[in-house]
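Batch manifest line 372
LIGAND: flavin-adenine dinucleotide
JOB: complex structure
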Amino acid sequence: MKVVIIGSGPAGVVAAEALRARDRSLELAMITQEPYPPYSPPAMADHFLNGRDEPLFWRGRDVCERLAVDYHPSSRVTSVDAAGHRVLLDGAPALAWDRLLVASGSRLHAPVENAELPGVHDFKSLAAAEEIVSRVRRGEARSAVIVGAGFIGMEIALLLADLGVRVAIIGRRGWVMPRMLDTETAEIAGRAMTARGVELRLGVEALGFAERDGRAAGVRMASGELATADLYVAATGVKPNVSFLAGSGIEAAWGITVDDHLRTTVPDVWAAGDAVEAADRATGERYVHAIFPNAVDQARVVAANMLGGDVTYAGAESMNSLKHLGLPIMAVGALAGALVAALAGALAGEGSERPCSSASCAAKPGAMCFGW
Ligand SMILES: Cc1cc2nc3c(=O)[nH]c(=O)nc-3n(C[C@H](O)[C@H](O)[C@H](O)COP(=O)(O)OP(=O)(O)OC[C@H]3O[C@@H](n4cnc5c(N)ncnc54)[C@H](O)[C@@H]3O)c2cc1C
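JOB STATUS: finished
ARTIFACT:
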């Protein structure tokens, strides 16, 4: 039997490990549009600060060789032919499968004007992170404006500040990490950020990026002000990579639709990780829970079920921690009041939507935005 895995993120690589542990004779193939061995996105900031490879290539650079996985780096999936059991690739022969795992993760979601302009950076992949850091190391970027005061915006700000860049963060809410922290805890985190040299501009609405000569030339604020710097970074949220599934019958709303065994709407096709709209363990609400432990748990469930198991997914957790601030910050479960707000919304007939708080954001239901 041949299993093809789309994606070499935590979900893809853990699924490969679990499949190989169960069956030595399986044919396994893994496709990623990135040129690197499988890596851990949460370890990127640390990697650029201390140069250590081990946490980044967390399963070892040789993981695919060890697991006898036929690895296809720098290969982009353009579509899935579900009836023909084939994955179509950009500029390379199609790959046939008996079972397919879609673990295509997520990318930047930036519901602001001109976010696609050259010169607007993000930190969603190793290539994107390398582009930012190399601009800094070449001396091209001595100042930066980051749009988004959520968890990822904070992480990028700390990295850039440690690399000697003068950093300002623009956050729409009045406190940092609004999807993760209450105002009291955020106040402590905010003070620690300021002490690390990061300028916090909170309660300020960024409308988008100004353009000059086809490149980003500032962040336009609702107040009319233009914030300028050498480097612009968007850290406003993430959205699942699902566009290549169009026409395949594998249904996706915001994220891929799965049942409680993480099967998609097409037989022999499963999905796991940031690309999936899974049920919350506590509330049952379905949305994209884009965190590492959920991707790993889902991958293990998929691996068992692909090989004939009957494992029900217990549901995704809400948690996160910020490691680089020098303060032990960890948030688990619903933010105080969030559940009450959701219940009030349901009673008011708004269903179980978890709307992004941006009026211009199309990410509903199932949004995963950083409350930027
Ligand atoms: C900077 C940063 C810090 C983070 N910190 C934390 C943290 O501290 N704690 C935490 O729990 N989570 C953290 N996360 C989130 C965590 O990294 C993700 O939840 C996790 O990586 C999801 O794993 P995944 O395998 O589903 O997707 P991803 O890691 O997004 O991997 C997706 C894979 O799919 C491939 N792919 C996508 N589309 C295609 C295509 N069309 N063709 C071929 N390949 C494709 C990509 O190349 C990639 O290999 C962080 C994320 C970032 C970016």
